[in-house]
What does this fold into?
Amino acid sequence: MTFGFAPSSAASTSSSAALSAASTTPLARTLEPAEWAAAGIPLLRNPREVVSGLYARHRPLPLTAVVAVLDPDERLLASASFKRRTAQADGWMLRNALLSQLRRVIPHDLRRRTPVRTAVLLYCREGDARWTEEDGAWMWGLRDACTLHGLRCGAYITLTRDGWQVLGEGRGGRSPSIGSVPEPFATAEAPPPLPRTGGAASDILSRVAAR
It folds into this structure.
């Protein structure tokens, strides 16, 4: 026999309404810089090499995200690039997009007690390197997608016309930047893909690269 107290209908209704509001409010699905810094995100040993390699492989344009999975030695295992398709920066929708790409390029590690592979995100956008609400939504999405795929949540990097910036760390550089000439390919053994020539339609399609 068990004993307990059933919650009142008013309390239950109030709780359900609060949960519903939280799940539908975009501001609840974003991370502030202080929250990101306090999350213990592992630092990249050589962020410039990672950024340069991903830029050479995917040649991202504004509104393009590149999600990559690295092994413990920061070697590239898999990566995928895709265009942001929603007008509103919503962490839940961005999480779903990231998770979909991860599932396409690499098996999950959910059976491991401790994640050994790390996912990092490079997002190409206009503007300067300062944090925006859109960045906060991407951070939330990356962290949640990593949890659901059994990966460690790694760095979030923005790429603008001024260069690149690892948000929450204060590390960055002027090259590569939007429209710059890619440096020699360094993060994987395979050569970078040929430039796209299919016009606007091909720009919309995701480009996936895996080693």
Confidence is low (pLDDT under 50) at residues 1-24, 187-211. Residues 133-149 form the longest helix (17 residues). The helical segments are 9-24, 33-38, 47-58, 91-105, 133-149, 200-204.
